[in-house]
Amino acid sequence: MSWILATPIIIPFATAVLAFLFRHGPEGRWLSVLGSAGLLVSSIILMLTVLDEGVIAAQMGQWPAPFGITLAADLLSAVMVVITGITGLAIAIYALADVEQRKEQLGYHALYQVLLAGVCGAFLTGDLFNLYVWFEVMLISSFGLLILGGTRAQLDGGIRYVTLNLISTILFLSGVGLLYGMTGTLNMADLHGAVQEVDNPGLLVVVAVMFMIAFGVKAAVFPLFFWLPASYHTPAISVSAIFAGLLTKVGVYSLIRTFTLIFTTDIAYTHTILLWVAGLTMVTGVLGAAAMNDFRRILSFHIVSQIGYMVLGLALFTPLALVGAVFYLVHHIIVKANLFLVAGVARRIAGSTELGQIGGLYKTAPLLALLFLIPAFSLAGFPPLSGFWAKFLLIKAALEEGGYIIAGVALAVGLLTIFSMTKIWGYAFWKPHPAGLEPRLSRLSARDRAALLTPIAALAVLTCIIGLFPEPFVQFATRAAEQLLDPQTYVQTVLAAAPEAGQ
Amino acid sequence: MELLVAIMVGVLVAASVHLMLARNVLRFIFGLVLISNAANLIIFASGRLTPESPPLIAEGETTPALDAANALPQALVLTAIVIGFGLFAFALTLVYRAYQNLGTLNSDEMRVAEPQAQKPSTAGQVAEKQYIARDADA
Question: Using the beta-carbon criterion (under 8 Å), do A167 and B32 form an inter-chain contact?
């Protein structure tokens, strides 16, 4: 059992070591693709096992829970690992044509794989302190990726990214310390029972808010998001895309995990804060995007705005709302990573991501225009694409709870999202290129074209599939939400998992 | 003992907030070092601080005495210190590189990534030109 849970972490780590050794030759980038494909396969095996058996858990080392190193996967963890595998592979292929050789020699592919390992570890761990360690693994590799190349903009954005994220980890760590002092355990399943017996519930809420702030910084919610639009548009496109797809979502995942499993003692207080945060995050993100004039900076602000929808699902805390949140997480990772990849191709053939300096893409590169329209409409929530169902579920959940204002806000933000997307469309695709350039896909070599467009097309097809056949995905999200709202199975499985012999 | 540590944590956090509110990025990094040590002390204190009773298990018993210090938070602190050390080494190098390249430590003057006016930075333009040149070569 334990190997199924451990492979999504081991494979990227092993790949990272190999990719580092072969960083000077072309082998490094192919190893990265191969490793990401291996990650995808192992994550699908994990998913099939979880679908079959419900929650699975294993103790690494020979110590039983709650003392051992617990790895656990329920449906939410499993689907997050699968989606990590999908985006990881897509962007590894894209990187074949996007990352310069100089960056490869500095160890781009090794850092990329360590990042994937950190993300998978965070999704699979069943222990709060280990979650902290996985966050650090993720952080340090993301630091490296962000400033690789060392342009002035990267260093500038990097300082904001590094400092604010470090503050968040320190808050997280303090929260872990205080929680351990109160309960004597850090195993998440064990904590579920232990927090009920804390004799000072007020202090527990304080710790809950510390975790909320720490994960809130990672998830880039209002008012803690400033590091994100300052840095996400500076590194290589593949780095922007993997950050945009996965990193903030680890924060959202951690929020969902801790605020459904551990901090449910004072829902009226904590989840009301989350509701306000959700609304304000949606609005500020979308308004920030409206003020931007750069392809990637618009998309960066939209990450913030979309995070609000996921937090909304958690804040409402009804079965339907959590279904919406899980669905939204999956949809958003695919769509947002894809939009960044499109921005990268636009930059390659038109010369910039600054909207004032590019244009004419619709006339001379209609295929790219189509590939942009699919994720852009999906992001804005057009039927029949995946974003429509995600928003539909969340807004329906809000209306059922009588949250007319928040439902109205969510709808209005959707409308403003369309505004931003039409702005990109108008500037980058419709208006003629200001320098008279004719941006054609044929400017790229055949090899680059294949490496850049295949992942974009694959992710776009995935969006369409989720949108056209939402039934199985919604059913899956429903089961995942049931597990989150009734964590008894999770708790029992983790605490009963026998330690593995002979590690 | 816990009270002393608690006061210590308070002083450290206050000092670090003071440092972090400065516009000088280097001061900010020093503040970060202080606040991370405050966090380490919190974990340390959460495992009971007892100078008199060592966490040893008496013969015939299976658990140590109830008021003995818990060893787990101390192990956690060690991990946190090591990780923190690595991160700060990185942060310091980053600040140094930024100072070399941007020529300032004032965070208000660091506006390359987010220029005030809506026009692209020169650094961005150079990068973009290299990008196009690369494709033209290919």
Answer: yes
| CA-wise closest residue to A499 among A49, A88, A68 | A68
**What tens digit of pLDDT does each residue of A369-421 get?**
899 999 999 988 888 888 899 999 999 999 998 889 999 999 999 899 998 89
Residues in chain B with CB shorter than 8 Å from the CB of A159 are 25, 94-95, 98, 107, 110
3-state secondary structure of A56: strand
Query: Is the ipTM beyond the 0.85 threshold?
Result: no
Task: Tell me the residues of chain B between 25 and 64 that have a Cβ less than 8 Å away from chain A.
Answer: 25, 28-29, 32, 35-36, 38-40, 42-47
Q: Enter the pTM of the model.
A: 0.90
Considering only CB atoms, A159 lies closest to which of B25, B83, B124, namely B25
In chain A, what are the domain boundaries? Answer: 2-495
Q: Is A62 helix (H, G, I), strand (E, B) or coil?
A: coil
Dihedral, CA of residue B77, residue B78, residue B80 and residue B86, to nearest 10: 160
Is B43 in contact with A150 (Cβ distance < 8 A)?
no
Bridge partner list, B40 = none
Q: What is the pLDDT of residues A294-327, one digit of tens each?
A: 888 899 999 999 999 999 999 999 889 999 999 9
B67 close contact with A: CB closer than 8 A: no
Evaluate the CA torsion angle A436, A442, A444, A449 in order and state its sign: positive
Residues of chain B found within 8 Å of residue A136, distances taken between Cβ atoms: 83, 87
Burial of B59 (0-12, 13-18, 19+ CB in 10 A): exposed
* Interface contact A435, partner B, CB < 8 A: no
Contact predicate B93/B79, CB 8 Å = no
- The mean pLDDT values, 10 residues at a time, for chain B of 138 residues are 89 94 90 92 84 76 76 87 90 90 82 66 48 50
